[in-house]
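SAMPLE LOG
Freezer: B-3
Tube label: C17
Construct: single chain, 112 aa
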Amino acid sequence: MGEINTMLGYASADRVIRQVGETIGLLIRGEDLACRYSGNKFAILLPDTEAERAEHAILRINGVIGHTEFAVEGHHHPIAVSLESRVVGYQDGDTPESLIERSWAAPLRSAA
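STRUCTURE (predicted):
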């Protein structure tokens, strides 16, 4: 997003981030929750989902986002976005903060 900020400004980058969030929202189940929690970072909660299925869902989301060209009014070229993701499972006693903290230590997955 830093590149978009530099080229088009913060307002345009924010519009792209919103479009990414809307796209993620279309790709998850009704019981799932996607939220933007910091700058260009999203958290996607997949309740009652085993790790393997969660990884599959995240790979699918990464693939769709990676192949989607986002548009910003006044900019004539489509904007490509790539995602990096981490998958962590809920553990007894987890808080939102502990899940996010553990996610930073989890293996990084780049979109293919």
